[in-house]
């Protein structure tokens, strides 16, 4: 990329940054050609190159795998209106895409001149060049590819495989000094095309009109300097033009849609008197091949002449880049209550001009109106003008003016005029408001502001803000700003609770006990300082947040998910210190934590604590204890607990009978499973018979538990007897029933039974496939016992030997077993060495069947290698992370797993190096990742 574009796009991709990871340990000599395909005259840009700007973004443009594509990936979309744009230096450019039966039509706009439509349709899927143009002047150019359809049911696909930029001198075809205008070529339907001075012909290669219209850039005058502006203009053309099928569709009489065929005069003043009549005349001439010369106008229904005149005057001022006139035009629209007529493209054009003025302008009469305009722009997603206005007042030590702007911005927000899908530019409003609150020493201002936003700020961004704007402030103001920022954000999360729940869930998923402790201690600190109060205490100030029982349950659950029962115990003690009595649900969460660690003695002590509190342990608590006792083969205590549970069996006259029966049935099923796992088959059968006679009546889970055991024993008579009992009781077999029977038939080689089972499954609309069998494996491994591994491996082996592709294993199957083995290692039920060897074997089996490792499997292998001792495991882990970067599968979890794993290994130098790499990337750093980055940075 040229230096002119370096300020817009990063010059180094994430995969290039990752090379520093490997070089940290060694310096290999590069081999082969350049990674980007650069041969001196051409440069190939992969679809994931950061220079390509996709609109509207990743929610519509998906990164897909395609084995025939360049680097095996494409960016693909099925949306009705999407664009991909590139700013490049060169003499030509070509687009390579995957063509297929579902391929879409698209247009190409090069430096404001449209061409097309081109098409990606083909009977056979393949990769080919679909658009190409050479012979351009050696300069900077903009090319934008547009997929556009008015059909809401359109599901055709447009994709970008790669873009090739050409940089070589043009050869004159005439041999004279006159240049021959370059003509784009590509794939399209056979359409009738007429070019000035040419005879109509049927062609499969459309070309642009030789009498090219004035560039689209004339709309915004000389301010168009980058690809982002071109993207905004393309979006304006697509979204603002009236949607008539004969002018927006890819018609057969002209290859350029009507909305791109307008030639724009540089001076619009004389055009505005007869707009209405001329617009009607234009509509009657849509079918003509020569495009109308009329300027684009904004007309509204019902037609309001005063509003129309204000819009037109504003539009003229914007084309002149006269900020004063633009501000006056804005204020006139505000007076007419017509700010909804202010289009996004107008906001985009005026935004940079307004921001530059507001950061430097003195307090002149126009400034107040310009700041009002900036407040409105922020509600439309353009933050720079408001940021500039607030920055100006901050540097003037004027907190009151900052707060006045915030209030004015909130007033615009309540009108609902602008609700952008995303923000353009960094949103630093809360930082400025929090500084103003710190300068006024009024915490309530910061709390009130944070309650209206979900923004959060990482330490790097906060530190950069302090260095930029608070360098003249006292240390007291800077520290107060940091404290207000932290406390107000935490108060917001506690008040709304949803963000806090999501944060704790992420922490639990990552088993990040350090982040959980930090977050909990922050809440405790706010309680100690009176910023929070527990439920039942009346707040003395409106900004004080009430902490209710949900918060304590959430953190106990998070501690258990992190396998840190010590933290859970501490939270329970703190609750009682604050006068809060733990509920049975809270006690049951703590019991689950003990059960996962096999801490039976602690579980029995907890039962005593529950009773000392004046509560009776419920069925749920006792079932957790009983299951743990069976796991430890402590049969006598387990049976005693079960006897207590049986005494809870409700009588028909009890008012809470319906609520007790489901819990009781779960307890019985757990007891049956425990008896079978301890090889007490007769006792388990006897308990099922008692249930059939006295209740609670067995469900399909009860019989599946028995079936699984008897198929493992290859006891065909008992298996058949259980199947008959299922039928006699009118129960519906589920996928686990059939899977258990199918695996049992595979063990014995009973092909007739397998065929019969498949027939019966299809009759019940249960089709045997790898998803069903993977789910069955997950069900079997859910017991958390190593005894389940042989059964799971048997199912996998059966699937691998199947000729039916629908039954053969896929990535999900392998990952299900690998994840279950990893859990057994984490819970210390399986030796780490044996667990790693089994996971590695599964990984190799998966790869040998032609499957690629996805992000989830990469994460699992990364985590297991980081837990293994030795230098070789570290090299493997870094290699896996490097692969994640190259395949662009990396996300926040990837960084957290790597950095927390390096921290646990005490590889601080490597961890700090990787934090530096993270800082140069575009990843959002928050939550657990933010906590571990902060810790690593302090080593």
From TrEMBL:
PPR repeats: 548-582, 583-617, 664-698, 699-733
Compositionally biased intervals (Polar residues): 185-202
Keyword Aminoacyl-tRNA synthetase attached: no
Pfam annotation, one family: PPR_3
Domain of life the protein comes from: Eukaryota
Spans annotated as Disordered: 1-43, 174-211
UniProtKB keywords: Membrane, Transmembrane, Transmembrane helix
Keyword field contains Transcription: no
Gene3D superfamilies registered for this protein in UniProt: Galactose-binding domain-like, Tetratricopeptide repeat domain
InterPro entries linked to this entry: PPR_P_subfamily (IPR050872), PPR_rpt (IPR002885), TPR-like_helical_dom_sf (IPR011990)
Transmembrane segments annotated in the record for this chain: 216-239
Low complexity bias: start-end ranges: 1-26
Family label: Belongs to the PPR family. P subfamily.
Name the record gives this protein: Pentacotripeptide-repeat region of PRORP domain-containing protein
Species the sequence originates in: Serendipita vermifera MAFF 305830
């Amino acid at each position: 990329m040229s230096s002119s574009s370096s300020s817009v796009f990063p010059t180094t991709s994430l995969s290039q940054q990752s090379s520093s990871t490997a070089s940290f340990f060694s310096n290999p000599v590069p081999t082969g050609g350049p990674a980007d395909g650069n041969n001196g005259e051409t440069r190939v840009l992969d679809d994931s190159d950061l220079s390509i700007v996709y609109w509207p973004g990743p929610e519509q443009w998906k990164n897909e795998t395609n084995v025939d594509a360049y680097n095996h990936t494409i960016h693909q979309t099925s949306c009705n209106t999407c664009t991909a744009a590139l700013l490049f230096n060169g003499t030509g450019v070509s687009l390579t895409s995957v063509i297929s039966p579902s391929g879409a039509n698209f247009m190409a706009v090069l430096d404001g001149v449209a061409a097309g439509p081109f098409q990606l349709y083909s009977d056979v899927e393949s990769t080919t060049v679909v658009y190409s143009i050479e012979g351009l002047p050696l300069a900077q150019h903009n090319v934008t590819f547009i997929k556009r359809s008015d059909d809401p049911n359109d599901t055709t696909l447009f994709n970008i495989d790669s873009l090739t930029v050409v940089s070589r001198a043009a050869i004159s075809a005439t041999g004279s000094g006159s240049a021959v205008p370059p003509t784009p070529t590509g794939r399209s339907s056979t359409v009738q095309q007429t070019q000035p001075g040419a005879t109509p012909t049927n062609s499969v290669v459309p070309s642009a009109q030789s009498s090219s219209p004035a560039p689209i850039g004339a709309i915004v005058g000389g301010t168009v300097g980058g690809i982002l502006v071109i993207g905004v203009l393309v979006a304006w053309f697509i979204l603002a033009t009236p949607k008539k099928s004969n002018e927006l569709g890819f018609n057969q009489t002209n290859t350029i849609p009507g909305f791109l065929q307008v030639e724009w005069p540089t001076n619009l003043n004389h055009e505005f008197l007869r707009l209405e009549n001329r617009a009607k005349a234009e509509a009657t001439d849509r079918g003509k091949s020569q495009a109308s010369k009329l300027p684009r106008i904004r007309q509204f229904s019902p037609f309001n002449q005063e509003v129309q005149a204000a819009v037109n005057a504003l539009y003229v001022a914007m084309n002149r880049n006269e900020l004063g006139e633009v501000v006056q035009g804005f204020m006139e629209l505000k007076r007419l209550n017509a700010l909804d007529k202010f289009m996004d493209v107008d906001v985009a054009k005026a935004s940079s001009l307004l921001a530059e003025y507001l950061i430097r302008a003195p307090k002149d009469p126009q400034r107040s109106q310009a700041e009002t305009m900036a407040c409105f722009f922020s509600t439309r997603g353009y933050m720079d003008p408001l940021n500039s206005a607030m920055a100006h007042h901050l540097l003037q030590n004027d907190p009151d003016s900052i707060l006045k702007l915030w209030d004015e911005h909130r007033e615009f927000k309540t009108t609902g005029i602008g609700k952008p899908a995303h923000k353009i530019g960094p949103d630093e409003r809360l930082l400025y408001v929090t500084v103003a609150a710190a300068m006024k020493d009024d915490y309530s201002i910061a709390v009130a502001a944070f309650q209206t936003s979900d923004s959060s700020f990482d330490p790097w961004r906060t530190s950069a803000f302090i260095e930029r704007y608070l360098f003249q402030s006292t240390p007291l103001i800077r520290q107060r700003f940091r404290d207000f920022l932290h406390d107000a954000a935490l108060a917001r999360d506690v008040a709304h609770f949803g963000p806090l729940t999501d944060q704790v869930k992420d922490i639990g998923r990552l088993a990040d006990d350090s982040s959980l402790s930090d977050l909990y201690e922050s809440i405790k600190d706010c309680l100690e300082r009176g910023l929070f109060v527990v439920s039942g205490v009346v707040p003395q100030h409106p900004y004080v947040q009430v902490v209710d029982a949900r918060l304590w349950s959430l953190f106990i659950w998070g501690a258990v998910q992190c396998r840190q029962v010590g933290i859970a115990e501490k939270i329970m003690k703190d609750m009682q210190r604050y006068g809060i009595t733990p509920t049975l649900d809270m006690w049951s969460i703590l019991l689950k934590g003990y059960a996962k660690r096999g801490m039976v003695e602690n579980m029995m002590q907890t039962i005593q604590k529950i009773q000392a509190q004046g509560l009776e342990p419920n069925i749920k608590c006792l079932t957790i204890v009983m299951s743990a006792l069976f796991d430890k083969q402590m049969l006598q205590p387990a049976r005693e607990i079960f006897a207590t549970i049986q005494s809870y069996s409700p009588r028909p006259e009890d008012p809470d009978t319906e609520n007790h029966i489901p819990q009781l049935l779960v307890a019985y099923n757990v007891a049956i499973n425990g008896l079978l796992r301890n090889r007490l088959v007769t006792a388990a059968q006897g308990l099922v018979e008692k249930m059939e006679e006295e209740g609670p009546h067995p469900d399909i889970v009860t019989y599946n538990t028995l079936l699984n055991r008897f198929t493992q024993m290859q006891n065909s008579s008992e298996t058949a007897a259980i199947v008959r009992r299922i039928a006699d009781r009118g129960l519906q077999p589920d996928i686990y029933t059939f899977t258990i029977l199918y695996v049992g038939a595979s063990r014995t080689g009973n092909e007739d039974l397998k065929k019969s089972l498949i027939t019966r499954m299809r009759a019940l609309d249960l089709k045997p496939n790898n998803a069903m069998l993977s789910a069955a494996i997950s069900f079997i491994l859910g017991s958390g016992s190593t005894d389940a591994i042989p059964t799971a491996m048997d199912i996998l082996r059966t699937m691998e030997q199947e000729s039916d592709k629908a039954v053969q294993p896929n990535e999900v199957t392998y990952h299900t077993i690998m994840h279950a083995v990893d859990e057994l290692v984490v819970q210390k039920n399986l030796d780490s060495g044996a667990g790693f060897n089994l996971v590695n074997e599964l990984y190799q089996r998966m790869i040998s069947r032609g499957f690629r490792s996805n992000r989830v499997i990469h994460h699992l292998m990364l985590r297991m290698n980081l837990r293994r001792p030795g230098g070789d495991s570290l090299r493997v882990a870094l290699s896996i992370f490097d692969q994640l970067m190259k395949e662009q599968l990396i996300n926040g979890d990837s960084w957290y797993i790597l950095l927390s794993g390096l921290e646990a290994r005490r590889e601080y130098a490597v961890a700090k190096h990787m934090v530096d790499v993270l800082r140069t990337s575009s990843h959002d750093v928050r939550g657990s990742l933010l906590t571990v980055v902060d810790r690593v940075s302090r080593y």
